Amino acid sequence: MTFVGMQARVGGLFQSRKPLGYVVLSAASIFLFDTWRPLHFAVAVLYIVVIVLAALWFKQVGILRTAALCAALTCLSFIITHGSDPDSGAAARTMISLAAIAITTKLALFNIATRERLIAVGKEKDNLARFFPQAIVEQIATNDIALSTTRYEPAAVLFVDMIGFTKFCSVLQPQHVIAMLRELLCTLSSSVFEHHGTVDKFTGDGLIAVFGLPVSSDSSATNAVRCALTMQARLQAWNDERAASGQEAVTVAIGIHYGDVVLGDVGCESRLELTVLGDTVNVASRVENHCREAKASILITDAVVRRMLNEGSEGTVRRFTDRGFHAIRGHSEAIRLFAIPRDAALSID
After folding, report:
1. What are the mean pLDDT values of the chain's consecutive 10-residue runs (349 residues total)?
2. Backbone phi, psi, residue 125, to 5°
3. How much is the pLDDT for 8?
4. Are 97 and 47 within 8 A, CB to CB?
5. CATH architecture of residue range(s) 146-341
6. Using CA atoms, how far apart are residues 277 and 279, in angstroms rounded to an integer?
7. pTM for this structure?
8. Is 341 helix (H, G, I), strand (E, B) or coil?
9. What is the Cα Rg of the chain in Å?
10. What is the pLDDT of residue 342?
11. Residues 259, 303: contact at Cβ < 8 Å?
């Protein structure tokens, strides 16, 4: 809870001198009342009010020190009033007061820890939402999925890259290039999330997306291909708007491959990045590069097609043209490719 007018922390103990004064005044009043009024009930239990106030204003250290102050005043009051003539009833009331102080302190600390944990989880979700669709973010948070665990699993990998980015940089002002890239990447990444994929990384003028990780899916290849079709359809609509305002069209190439990948953290301790590695990733990258030579807007491999047929997506497969086997740079064996031509008109599903 935040109060208007709170000042910065003082001396690393309390957040404001004014709340500190309230706490000290309250504790002193209870001490005087408990010490000099001959009442036969545990007046010192009122110290829990002081601890509750401390829980509203202070951090854990401030709460602990407030509790210690209250406990010390409770004991001091007992010594002053009954030190020379111990009374069993007074001793019992003192123990009740100390127990109440301890329990309230524990609850206050637990409440703060829970609140801080919720804030941390919220920040973690916000960070994950940059790369994962909301449904997967909720699954990761709810099921406590360990993203740092290295594992080897099948997935569909999608590479998308802008064609002619260097030309845009040479004719546009830098601020216009950045604005165009932001709109492009927003369109691409939103398509990934809508089709239950994750953004592995942004590559400047494109991105790498993975479907089927970190949460497995029975339709990962289908989701990847439908994502690619949506990307191109949305870019066609965007280019119609750009043409109406006299701007040049933005085109992208998309390549998809399906197979086993390694998911794990790479980097150093100060900066780790969750990513996918392996031959499947390399092939997807090469297939995307081959789009230019093949004059295709989307190229998928036969591994993707086989997986889609297993997923029951024959209708989506029929939208692609079999281009036969192609030699892919960096790959020893020719790969069978299926294409959507560059000039094909696409509609958003």
Report:
1. 33 45 58 52 64 77 81 78 65 76 81 75 60 55 57 93 88 89 94 91 92 87 97 94 91 97 73 79 95 95 97 95 90 91 74
2. -65, -40
3. 37
4. yes
5. 2-Layer Sandwich (3.30)
6. 7
7. 0.64
8. strand
9. 32
10. 85
11. yes
User: What is the pLDDT at residue 292?
Assistant: 92
Contacts of 7 (CB under 8 A, 6+ apart): 15, 16, 17, 18
Query: Residue 227: left if φ>0, alpha if ψ -120 to 50, beta else—which one?
Result: alpha
DSSP state of 195: T
pLDDT of residue 318: 95
- Listed as own residue / partner, the contacts of 177-185 with beta carbons closer than 8 Å and 24 or more positions apart are 180/250, 181/205, 183/238, 184/235, 184/250, 184/252
Q: Which residues sit opposite 263 in a β-bridge?
A: 151, 276
Q: Would you state the structure tokens that stand for residue 234, as one six-digit string?
A: 């949305």
Q: Does 86 sit behind a cis peptide bond, omega within 30 degrees of 0 on the bond before it?
A: no
What pairs with residue 160 in β-bridges? Answer: 207, 254
Position 151: which residue type? R
The dihedral built from the CA positions of residue 137, 142, 145 and 148, taken in this order, carries a sign that is: positive
Domain boundaries along the sequence of the chain: 17-128, 146-341
Q: What DSSP character marks residue 204?
A: S
Largest CA distance in the chain: 102
Locate 145 and state its tokens.
Answer: 């999925």
* Whole-number Å distance between alpha carbons of 322 and 312: 19
Question: What residue spans of the chain are helical by DSSP H?
Answer: 17-36, 47-57, 60-82, 88-128, 134-143, 165-171, 174-194, 220-244, 279-294, 302-310, 314-317
